[in-house]
Amino acid sequence: MIKICLVSLGCVKNLVDSEAILAIFRSGDFEIVSAPKDSDVIIVNTCGFILDAKIEGIDTILEMAKYKKKLVVIGCLVERYYDELIKELPEVDLFVRFKDEYQKLPSLISDLLKLDKPLPNIDFSSRIISTDSYTAYLKISEGCDNFCSFCSIPYIRGRFKSEKMDKLVNDAKNLVKQGVKEIIVIGQDPTSYGKDLHDGSNLTKLLEELDKIEGLEFIRCLYLYPDGITDELLSLYKNSPKFPHYFDIPIQHASNKILKAMNRKHSKEDVINIYNKIKAIMPDAILRTTLIVGFPNETIDDFIELKEFISKYKFNHLGVFTYSREEGTVAYKMKNQIKKDIKEKRKEEIMSLQADISYQLNKELIGKKYRGLIIGKDKNEYLVRTSFNSPDDIDGNIYLKTDKKYEVGDIVNIEITHAFVYDLFAKDID
Fold this sequence. Notes:
The chain has helices at residues 12-24, 51-65, 76-88, 99-102, 105-112, 153-157, 165-177, 203-211, 231-239, 256-261, 268-281, 300-313, 340-363, and strands at 2-8, 30-32, 41-46, 70-75, 94-95, 135-139, 141-142, 161-162, 182-186, 218-221, 246-248, 286-293, 317-322, 369-378, 381-385, 398-401, 411-419, 424-428. The chain has 430 residues and is an alpha/beta fold. The strands form five sheets. The chain has a five-stranded parallel sheet with strand order 2-1-3-4-5, sandwiched between helices. Strand 14 (369-378) and strand 15 (381-385) form a beta hairpin. Helix 12 (300-313) packs parallel to helix 13.
């Protein structure tokens, strides 16, 4: 029995790829193990999006090499730096490029181990869910056609490509059969879903089909582009109880000058219009965004404009990144690159501002009642995720203390009792 250990790095889109790869090794003469020391082969699925991810990838590869097992490296880092990695990392036994080669992994690993027996029958159609049993990600597309000037994804992952709707719906049904109660729809640009299929498919139609699946309690959609949020999509969110009124809309900046330089399709005015429309239709809507500070040519005035925008529109949740200069992108060659210390200072200012906003908005939640999902427990204290919390702990925690007994994955009714900067406390109610 060949023991396989897979280490997955980077974003949740990478995680979905890793789950599909694990399924390849689920049968035959392969066994999946969690500890590298117990394996015969270690597979590292890397990220290569920004500098920090690249550093993490290299560090993880070198750490895995210490186990003296056969070492296979895949993922974005390999796609982006294939030739360089072969030269610089002799510790790696095999580099494998993207998805068209992933299904060859059993054969490649058998060759690597110099096995002379025939390969088992491999099932390429499923995934092994590595998240908690109640939730799973559904990746609906690959690649991106937006070509934002700071982003390397189109050069790594290729042009935008939608998955067929019937396959996605079947995948979702299979996930629910495995006990999944919450599906999180992801893609580099989910709002563009279907544009390349030329069969009438779009994001709203896909979500409508997911909405029909019995046993599916919650459907979330992350990384919505402002220009792709339609009236039909908002109507679905308003009228179906399965869709939390949670809108993750990365805008990156609020200065039109910087947005244009980033090659974003929207303006500040477009963002304001879509936010106002969302709030008019769903006053309880939760707004989350992500920003980039320190983009080339970002002046003090641009930064002040961004802070004023944040102060005025008061996002429930906000993340901010310092600009990462990535070779191969348009922004890499731009003049007036911002110094690292200035970028970090601007990030700190944004997060300090957001902390005050978050605390004020959290206090307004006291006394409100929500339907939530138990995502963790410790004796008589539980972690709960509600409509205003995204997965992966990026939006703070809700703590529930009770004498009642719940299991992870249970659905509960709660009332918010106390508020802090990011975290909340609650009690359960009938």
